[in-house]
Design brief:
Blueprint lengths: L3 E4 L4 E4 L2 E3 L3 H10 L21 H6 L3 H9 L6 E3 L3 E4 L1
Antiparallel strand pairs: 1-2, 1-5, 2-3, 4-5
C-alpha cells in the first residue's frame, strides 16, 4: 500500500519515502485532496480559505501528475495528523 506524507512545514511530499517535487500551488491543492479522508482542513496560504465544498472543484483543476498520483493511491486505512503534517497510509 502506498504511503503518502504531506509535510506542510517543510513544504515537501514523500511518496513511499521518495520526495516528490511540487510547486507551492500543487502542494496546496494536494493538501486539499487530503480532505477526501473526511478530515476538514482549512488552508489560508496560497489558495485562500478552502472548505469541504471546494474540494471537488479543486480536484478537477489538479495538475495531471497529481491526478495520476491520486489514482494510484488507494483510500487510506490510517490517517495521522498534526498541525503541519498529514500522513495517509
Amino acid at each position: 500500500m502506498a504511503n503518502l506524507i504531506l509535510d506542510r512545514h517543510q513544504q515537501r511530499v514523500l511518496l513511499n519515502g521518495m520526495e516528490c517535487s511540487l510547486t507551492d500551488l500543487e502542494f496546496e491543492v494536494l493538501w486539499v485532496l487530503s480532505a477526501f479522508t473526511g478530515i476538514p482542513l482549512t488552508l489560508d496560504r496560497l489558495t485562500g480559505h478552502l472548505h469541504d465544498n471546494d474540494v471537488e472543484t479543486d480536484i478537477q483543476q489538479l495538475h495531471p501528475c497529481l491526478l495520476a498520483l491520486q489514482q494510484k493511491l488507494p483510500l487510506p486505512r490510517r490517517l495521522g495528523m498534526t498541525n503541519d503534517r498529514v500522513i495517509l497510509s
